[in-house]
Amino acid sequence: MGWQDLVCAACAGRVVDGRCPSCRAARDHFRSTRTMLPAGPLLALAAVLLALLVILSH
Length: 58
Description:
Layout: H1 21-33, H2 39-57
């Protein structure tokens, strides 16, 4: 489920449609805070690179 599927408690519309001020504020918040890649894969990649660095330095 993504934020596009969220339903507004104020107007019962989809948040992505932005029918009321609450919807528009939530939609703008989600758009401004999204990243290109999720944090999980970035952390896993950093852990793998750190492990390789430690192994190669010995």
